[in-house]
Design a protein that fits this description.
binds flavin mononucleotide; 5-stranded parallel beta sheet; 2 domains; Rossmann fold
Length: 345
């Protein structure tokens, strides 16, 4: 039978029931929401159908689903839900009923067998529905639900950050449009080729284009094109000795007296934004660069302050080694879905 012919208006249900009675068919009835059909629904309806000759499914209308399950439901409209149920071979008829209680529809349907799924017991059935079934002389059967299958679980899964934003961690596809960000990697080996003045100017412009709290712009930049100066600074940086072999170095400092509210944290955040801009700009220009940590290491801060005779309020935050890369690490992200939280922690 075509699916649409299986859907019967509630006003036609009584006539359908009489036809079944005349044909001496044992009618099985169940009712439910059937929002986002899943295997649990199909298994349950097949089992229900096996208990008689004709399975009638009463489907809650949209208003009753909202009343039962909340304002975000149903996801699928009543006509579509009814059509999906009707498309199952084991289902002979479907009727949409206004709810949330099915007692009136059950009285019209007059089940020989009434089937309910899941956690219900005969005692926990809705009392009005139970009374209607008793009046019809229905046999009541409770069928187990397929474990793990539920529309609520499907909805929850769709709404996880992993599903919405990607689940594959470091193997995630890197969006081509953001290639300059994924391609920026720390470069620690350089070709013996100078970085010329136009590139240096572009790097500094990029650095100073970074956001700054209250537009206070506290960052200061010491450009090291003198190899002796780079070698001297490298001596202060146990993890940045390779600065001595880089064709260019830039020490990024922050002037606390110009920081937003004079706060060290704002100053460091502003300087970090400049440093990241500079690193991405270097990559875009085909250069390689590496951030070399200075602050908050007290020795490194003191040594650089002393070496450059920095004013009291000026604090070195980092050094950057720069040059044309001898080795280019592959683009990557460190994306980790477990570090993403959707609306709540
Ligand atoms: C605050 C900070 C300090 C860093 N200090 C050093 C350093 O002293 N020496 C170094 O070789 N790399 C340093 N790095 C670079 C990191 O090791 C590097 O960014 C990290 O391993 C990730 O690799 P990637 O930059 O290639 O993505 C520093 C990075 C940051 C953000």
């Amino acid at each position: 039978m075509p699916t649409t012919d299986k859907i019967i208006a509630l006003s036609e249900l009584s006539a359908w029931r009489q036809k079944m009675r005349a044909a001496n068919r044992r009618v099985v009835v169940t009712n439910g929401v059937f929002d986002l059909m899943h295997r649990g629904h199909a298994t349950y309806l097949e089992q229900a159908a096996s208990l008689g000759d004709s399975l009638l499914v009463l489907v809650n209308d949209d208003a009753s689903v909202t009343a039962l399950k909340g304002p975000s439901r149903p996801i699928v409209s009543q006509d579509d839900r009814a059509a999906m149920v009707a498309a199952l071979e084991c289902v002979e008829a479907v009727s949409i009923f206004p709810g949330p209680v099915a007692a009136d529809a059950l009285r019209i349907a007059g089940p020989d067998v009434y089937v309910k799924g899941g956690d219900y017991t005969v005692d926990s059935l809705n009392r009005e529905e139970f009374a209607a079934l008793q009046a019809c002389g229905s046999v009541i059967k409770i069928l187990p639900m397929v474990p793990g299958c539920s529309t609520s679980n499907i909805v929850k899964k769709i709404l996880t950050p992993q599903t919405l934003f990607g689940n594959t961690g470091k193997a995630a596809t890197l969006d081509e449009r953001l290639a300059p960000l994924f391609g920026r990697r720390s470069v620690r080996e350089f070709l013996p080729r100078a970085v010329e003045q136009p590139e240096v100017a572009a790097l500094l412009e990029a650095a100073m284009a970074a956001p700054s709290a209250r537009a206070s712009y506290p960052a200061e930049f010491i450009v090291l094109d003198d190899p002796q100066k780079r070698a001297a600074v490298a001596e202060f940086l146990p993890n940045g000795r390779f600065l001595a072999k880089a064709p260019l170095g830039i020490v990024v400092c922050g002037d606390l007296s110009r920081a937003c509210h004079g706060e060290l944290s704002y100053m460091i955040q502003d300087c970090s934004a400049c440093i990241e801009n500079l690193l991405v700009a270097a990559h875009l220009l085909g250069l390689g660069a590496c951030w070399l940590g200075v602050h908050p290491n007290a020795d490194r801060v003191a040594n650089l302050k002393g070496y450059f005779h920095l004013p009291e309020s000026v604090i070195p935050i980092s050094a950057i080694a720069l040059g044309w890369p001898a080795k280019t690490p592959p683009p990557r992200t460190n994306y980790d879905a477990s570090q993403v939280h959707l609306n709540v922690w």
